[in-house]
Amino acid sequence: MMNYRQSYDRSLADPVSFWAEQAEAVAWYQRPRNILEHLADGSHRWFADGRLNSSYLALDQQIALGRGEQAALIYDSPVTGVQQRFSYRELRDEVARLAGALRALGVGKGDGVIIYMPMVPQAAMAMLACARLGAVHSVVFGGFAPYELALRIDDAKPKLIVTASCGLEFERVIEYKPLVDKALELALHQPAQVMVWQRPQAMAELHAGRDLDWRETVAHAEPADPVELASGDPLYIMYTSGTTGKPKGIVRDNGGHAVAMQYALPNIFGMQPGDVWWGISDVGWVVGHSLIVYGPLMNGCTTVFYEGKPVRTPDAGAYWRVIQEHKVNALFCAPTAIRAIRKEDPHGELLKHYDLSSLRRLFLAGEKLDSSTQHWLEELTGKPVHDHWWQTETGWPVTAPCTGLGSADQRPGSSSLPVPGYNVQVVDEEGHLLGPNQTGSIVIGLPLPPGCAQTLWGDHPRYLNAYLRTYPGYYHTGDGGYVDEDGFVYIMGRTDDVINVAGHRLSTGEMEELLALHGAVAECAVIAVQDPIKGHVPLGLVVLKDDARLGEEQVQRELVALVRERIGALACFQRVVVVKRLPKTRSGKILRAVLRKIADAEEYAPPSTIDDPAILGEIAERLGAAGFARAC
Ligand code: COA
Ligand code: AMP
Fold it and tell me: What is the CA(421)–ligand 2 centre distance, in A?
């Protein structure tokens, strides 16, 4: 077996033979011969002539390998008090019947299905049932407001929406069905049907003719077998924030994704069949796809499916309880969750009640992992805590310790070494390669490995412009940082308008577009300011129109309500500061990076391109008065 260094070198020197070999691990219906195709526009296709089915790989194949009675999915829901175990056979049977029901509703290969559900196992079943039929699922995170859901409905044009009557946020019941109804009032596209999983905490009203009760619909359905798909057929669309109000529909193919999942789980995360894996996220994010549903199941692991929070469900010992009870071997979570636990239980008193002996490692990503949180967690658990870095677009880690290849070295502040297949480089603004320890834009040399998105749903030109045209020959990650002399990568933050709030990716550009809709706002900028738990939260700086008659408090109230109504509560947009002017370059570009530094009390030098340096002092004073950092 190759070690990390040998694998990495081979993957870059000869990607075709390297990935052809990895593809052997997949149970294709037709093994690919055409491993890598370069398209004239710079994008590429992996395994074009391979044929497979992702639901088959995640379920039927595992049963064929003798794992029928092994637990495939353990649902642990402290918010409802329910725990449920599904063996591979039980999960396959549920999925096959659901797929049969969807097929009877006219859903087939290439049809879109939007899934807007909380963390109930039916969400995973819906994903796998779509995959079984070749329908393209798009899961929308439950925290998004109807307007955002409507944007996705109009873009994905689903034949069907699958939802649940409600979700539970701590002790609050959030009714989902009225949100879907509202989204459908806003959307131009109308799906034929809405299928509802009724939960006892709040039963939804069903509209005759359009809405279907899940249990009734599935009760008499004939199970459906997996259909044979081409490698390049889309498995799912995952919408993610870009720099504008229009989310990007990241498209994941079936073949590249299956190879990437079969490679990542054992080689990066050290997972073997029969191991218990816990991806602590939500099916509404990419992590939920790769590390809650497809990755663990395609590798014969048991996946823990958690409907709860790190704290207050019921306390900051919740994660330790789940690890002990389900004998979790390794987990993924966001640093935010650990910061929240640390705040409530700084000395780890609750952990003392639990046995973590099953746990081998913890993997953290989604936002910057600060060293203090990393060390605290390592000391508390006595286990290695690994930072690693990826994006919705890549679908699996770009840099990570490859623990399955014997490489678990880490350096403080680094998200580790590049994973085989990823040629990570740093360039300056003109696209010149930079040397070790020089900060610039992080790019990945083409071809990207299998599994990474090669297009956006219905908008290939936007894919090319956003990712491949900025630095020809490279994929533009949108992250800035550097690589040290030994190849360790350090992610310093986004170079665009994307921010991470509690591990959730949001667009400040989109928030600015919303604030600008308000009648009193002449100009605005939204920046991310540091937050001790959520990493960052957005802050709006607005210049009011001369004739605006509103006080600062009322402006803030109205703008906060606007963002909550249009994007959703997950944006955590709660603060607005009114300023007289915004700092700009002579060409009129708002200097957001300087604003960020002032708000976070970091040192800054007025850029040489600034139109009027005096504005910076004014802004610092206003932010100081509003309780943000004092001027440097
Ligand atoms: N459905 C509906 N509303 C949701 C939601 C969902 N699925 N998820 C979040 N929200 C709402 C919350 O109820 C909250 O609403 P409020 O403003 O009315 O209180 C708002 O969105 C902000 O939520 P959040 O940022 O999660 O803050 P919180 O105070 O409720 O919880 C933490 C704080 C740290 C417990 C929580 O952020 C957390 O668990 N973070 C980890 C996230 C994670 O695992 N991310 C991984 C992504 S890969
Ligand atoms: P998402 O597409 O929601 O997964 O968000 C991807 C973005 O999150 C990346 O582009 C980074 O900005 C950020 N991110 C993810 N993992 C890390 C990490 N380990 N360190 C720093 N930033 C990260």
Answer: 19
The pLDDT score that the predictor gives to residue 245 is 75
Nearest Cα to Cα of residue 450 among 4, 23, 10? 23
Collapsed DSSP state (helix, strand, coil) of residue 152: helix
- Are 392 and 295 found together in one domain? yes
**Does position 404 have pLDDT exceeding 90, yes or no?**
yes
Question: Among residues of the chain, what percentage have pLDDT more than 90?
Answer: 90
Residue 53: pLDDT band (50, 70, 90) is: very high
Asked if the model's pLDDT at residue 476 lies above 90, the reply is: yes
Q: Is the pLDDT at 241 greater than 80, yes or no? A: yes
Q: How far is the CA of 439 from the centre of ligand 2 (A)?
A: 17
Q: What is the pLDDT of residue 261?
A: 98
The protein residue with its alpha carbon nearest to ligand 1, atom 21, reads 570
Same domain, 139 and 264: no
Provide the phi-psi class of 310: left if phi over 0, else alpha when psi is between -120 and 50, else beta. Answer: alpha
Give residue 244 CA to ligand 1 midpoint distance, Å.
23
Domain with 162 in it: what CATH number?
A: 3.40.50.980
Q: Do residues 513 and 486 both lie within one domain?
A: no
Cβ count within 10 A of residue 268: 24
- Whether 586 and 609 have beta carbons less than 8 Å apart is answered as yes
Conformation bin of residue 61: beta by default, left when phi > 0, alpha when psi is -120 to 50: alpha
Look at residue 22 in the predicted model and tell me its pLDDT: 98
For residue 303, the CA-to-ligand 2 centroid distance in Å is 23
Mean pLDDT in residue range 420-449: 97
Residue 82 in domain: yes
572 and 441 belong to one structural domain: no
Cβ neighbours of residue 580 closer than 8 Å, sequence gap 6 or more: 543, 618
Domain assignment present for residue 392? The answer is yes
pLDDT of residue 23 exceeding 50, the answer is yes
pTM (predicted TM-score): 0.95
208 and 242 part of one domain:
no
620: tokens are 């610092």
Of the candidates 330, 319, 335, which has an alpha carbon nearest to the alpha carbon of residue 375?
335
**Mean pLDDT confidence for 559-568:** 96
Choosing from 398, 399, 491, 497 the residue with most ligand 2 atoms within 8 A of its CB, the one to mutate for a pocket test is 491
Could you tell me if 219 and 125 are in contact, meaning their C-beta atoms sit under 8 angstroms apart? no
- Domain housing 558: 502-625
The tens digit of pLDDT for each residue in 242-271 reads 777 788 999 999 999 999 999 999 999 999
Strand (E) positions, 421-520? Answer: 423-427, 440-445, 474-483, 489-494, 498-501, 504-507
CA dihedral sign, ordered 553, 554, 557, 563? negative
